[in-house]
Amino acid sequence: MDISSAGLRVLRQIAESGSFTAAAARLGYTQSAVSRQAAALERSANATLFERRPDGVRLTSSGLTLLRHAHIVLASLAAAERELTGTAPRAELVRLGVFLSAGAAMLPAALAHLTAADPQITVTTSEGTTPTLIRALRAGSLDLAVLTSRPPHRPFDGDSPRLHTETVTDTELVVAASSTGEFAGRTTVHVDELVDAAWIATPSSDSEPLLGVWPGLPGRPRIVHSVRDWLAKLQLVAGGFGVTTVPSRLSPVLPPGVNLLRVDGAPPEIRRVLVARLSGHPTPAIAAVTRAITSTA
User: Fold this and answer.
1) What pLDDT digit, counting tens, does each position of 157-184 carry?
2) DSSP one-letter code for 243
3) Are 145 and 277 contacting, i.e. CB atoms less than 8 angstroms apart?
4) Helix %, strand %, coil % for the chain, to 5?
5) What is the pTM of this model?
6) Disulfide: which of 79, 82, 105, 255 matches 88 by Cβ 3.0-4.6 Å?
7) Among candidates 221, 227, 176, 182, which has minimal Cα distance to 201?
């Protein structure tokens, strides 16, 4: 096969972003250039590498096979570049992804523990939804990810080999409301009372769930604010502009004016927090970061 490093980078970015358009934007290419690179890869591999689906693009089994080798090739090229330019890193680097509320609830304690136990390890972090982080793990853009799942906790995706996961903790979903608003002074709310509530939610796409609305709400939610940033969401709650769902473990970092309510009249919504990586034996640095996360949860 005659495959360029640019082609392998395109393959990796398509795997991570889930579409040709998003891959082109992240790489600074035109969409037609990405399509040409993808077609050239398939011709060279003599195999179908990409599956076009209504919700985006996924790699076929042949594409995943090539992606595993692409990780090795691109990492070797990056290492060669560092050596040739004299910029070889002195510290071990771990690229960590976290789901949208884990940054505030878990990340500071885990990084503080890691700094004390293994100061030679450098961690970079990026935030995203669980589906986004899974794609980044598969594409090799992340080494480790903190993910969340709901019962019955099935495998995160159907790709092979399965991701290696370790359970960190289980946490209950609750509703955050203004401490001076309609639900002031209460610790619980009935699910029927939430039907007409003003909701503050995180934008969603076809392949990702809407975050911030009670999952068992008996009716269509009235979303008044669509916000990704957790601080903005909680400040809107504190100002009395709506309610949102949060994991109960966020309680230590809530801003003033926010009250947490358990929901009656509906089954508890339990979310499992897991740390995930590609299968295989982890590097010592990845193992150390995993220990820091699990030991401080």
Assistant:
1) 877 788 999 999 999 999 999 999 899 9
2) B
3) yes
4) 40, 25, 35
5) 0.73
6) 82
7) 227
